[in-house]
Amino acid sequence: MTGVRAILLVAALAQPVALAAQEPSRQAMLTAEDRRSMADADLEPLLSGIRSPVEGVAVAALRGLGRFERGTLVARVVPALDDRRPRVRVEAIWALGQLGQDSAAAPTVATILLDRLALSSDPAIQAALGRSLARLPVRDPALRSRVADALDGLLRQDGPADYVLEVTRAAESFARLAGRGAGRRPETIARLEALTAYHGPPAAPAIRRTAAQTLLHVGARNPTVLSLLIVDADPGVRRLAAIWAADSAAVDDQRGVLQRLLADPAAMVRIEAVRGWSRQRRALDCAPLRAAAADPELPVALEAIGAIDSSCPDRAAAVQVLGILVDSLVTADRGAGPLAWHRGARALLSLATLDTVRASRAALAVARSSRWHLRMYAARTAALLGNDALLRTLAADEHDNVREAAVAGLVTVSGRAADSIYRAQLSRRDYQLVQTAARALAASPAPRAAVDASLAALGRISAERKDTSRDPRVALIERVDELGQPSDSVSVRPYLSDFDSVIAERAAAILTRWSGHAVAAKPVRVPPAPVSVAAADALRGARLRITMEGSTGRTDQFEIALDPDLAPATVLRIVTRAREGYYDGLTFHRIVPNFVIQGGSPGANEYVGDGPYMRDEVGPVSHERGTLGISTRGRDTGDAQIFVNLVDNLRLDFNYTVWGRVADGMDVVDRIAEGDVMRRVEVLSTR
To answer: Where are the alpha helices (DSSP H) in 367-430?
Structure first.
């Protein structure tokens, strides 16, 4: 408690200073947030903004400080808990929840929020306190028990629909982080079960979905509740029912329930039912999977095709279904023009587990396709078949994504025998390929050649000065660390002042080990380009229209409503790139049914994007179905690749930026397949 008292004392002393501070401009606050500097002089616009008489300024300042996720800022935010404006108090609670992600500060933040909860009767304040408490990384068992008690109390308390939704989401967060073995009180389970039947206001379906998801986390399976979930009007609830049915030994007629859900009118439900059948019933009967392989909705069909493998007892029937799809693909690929290739390509992977001769023949044919996506699938199939010769051929393909798939396969099939091929890839431009090849060179039997190739690639890529090169450069410097010698110090030393602090620290660690004395990193960071508040404000009410072209040549459109108030820097980057034509012609390369679709990479992969890195702008808006986020590989590593949430992805909340929402055309989003092209991304004027 001593730490909490000290923080409250510092906070009390800080109040007069904050009150006397000059009113900061929103531009200065946004610039301070961009700098990510903890120096008081750089933080001053945000610290002053907390006490602004303008509510929107105070809210923005608190949100900006929370995004630093530094426990040392807790005392600066605490005074705002006593602000007379409810919206500012709520934002202070969100900010403390974010600052409490610093594990050293989590116990203090938890104690502060628990004390506030004991004094509050405002449902909005209580709900915010609950959600912030639920996600704190508290390790102390006694304190964690206090948090659990508080969340249980909030959940069992009645209130407006918005309150119920938020406290149910708090329960979901806590249960997810605690794990299935944590358990919950019977009365809490009963409350969650009751909430799966919550009806009335617009928030009701989200409440039912969240309650069902929470029960999944804690391992509670009530057959009576399941019978209601199966017939729920909301497809998102029925989707969770399919997970329940497949994951529960308490279901008397598991087969019958899954068969019913396999015929559900919603594709998202059928996808989950296919997954459930493949986990629980595939070894007994693959007939439902074979039937689902012909589903009119591509994501359902692909899920079913991928589930048909050597565990199916009816092997001949499985081979027949897959063989027809593969043969049709090979025949159709010989022609020109658009091609619906996805079913056949996925079937080829599954066929490799059932009929190696037939799959080998088809893989050779597909490897000669003019479509790089199909050659990439040929490489993946060759890896399953252990076909070293085909993998070596495809490792010299003109498209780097094909090469990357081949190299990944060679690591498993050929191991160290393909070292020269791995080294050859380091001269290529694609970051994902270079990273995969550098990792493949671990424990190389030719260390000198591997180090020389790695240093050459590291120098070439570093000269591009792109933030987004971090991942391949880390892989390259790891090889130098593992295989290099102190004589390589002269080549490593320049990276002590690299523009990326991660690379500079790696270089310092290597030189320290080689020299036997401490060597300090001195990174020279390139300051971020300024973000204009005025330009962000001008985008209120604006939309993006994305015109898609599928593999068959069909075109569709969907529109995104932008949220520049929540994520001004992100929205401005996306809009600027859209106006420049950056996205035109790029694809959605990652399709994960019932999760997300992701696209906007010039290399059509995870590791090639627009630089410099974008900082995260996390906030209280949940990753509900239809919201859009920015793909990252760690904090503040966005590269303008976008993703669309296909379902409610609550586990992404407070970790990924939400910058918009699909306002029209979610059905188009649901139909997007791997490789579909964004023909045009245009900015529509404000409405």
So the answer is: 372-385, 388-394, 400-413, 419-425
* Residue of 114, 222, 127, 117 whose CA lies nearest to 173: 127
Separation between Cα atoms, residue 584 and residue 577, nearest integer Å: 10
Q: Are 96 and 113 in contact (CB under 8 A)?
A: yes
Q: Which two tokens stand for residue 396?
A: 């010299």
Q: How many CB atoms lie within 10 A of CB 533?
A: 19
Local structure of 3: helix, strand or coil: helix
Strands, E, within 631-676: which ranges?
A: 642-645, 658-664
Which residues are within 8 A (CB) of 302 and not within 5 positions of it... i.e. 6 or more apart?
A: 342, 343, 346, 593
Q: Cα torsion at 646, 648, 650, 653 (round to 10°)?
A: 60
Interacting residues of 609 by C-beta distance below 8 A, sequence separation 6+: 468, 600, 601, 602, 631, 639, 640, 641
Q: Indicate whether 9 pLDDT > 60.
A: no
Which of these, 103, 133, 110, 205, lies nearest to 164 by C-alpha position? 205
* Residue 98, phi then psi, degrees to nearest 5: -75, -40
| String of DSSP letters for 53-94 | SSHHHHHHHHHHHHTT--GGGHHHHGGGGG-SSHHHHHHHHH
For 187-224, write each residue's pLDDT tens digit.
999 999 999 999 988 999 999 999 999 999 998 888 89
Distances (CA, A) of 6 to 10, 74, 628: 6, 11, 40
Q: Confirm whether pTM is higher than 0.90.
A: yes
638 phi/psi in degrees, rounded to 5: -65, 145
Q: Is the Cα dihedral 141, 146, 147, 149 positive or negative? A: positive
Q: Which residue has the tokens 């999977």?
A: 289
Q: How confident is the model at residue 250 (pLDDT cuts 50, 70, 90)?
A: low
- Residue 662, φ and ψ in degrees, nearest 5: -65, 115
Q: Check if the beta carbon of residue 314 is closer than 8 Å to that of residue 287.
A: yes
Is residue 594 within 8 A of residue 646, CB to CB? The reply is yes
Q: For residues 136 and 380, what is the distance between their CA atoms, to the nearest angstrom?
A: 41
E strand or H helix that includes residue 270: helix 267-280
CA 92, CA 107: separation in Å to the nearest integer? 17
The span from the CA of 296 to the CA of 301, in Å, is 7
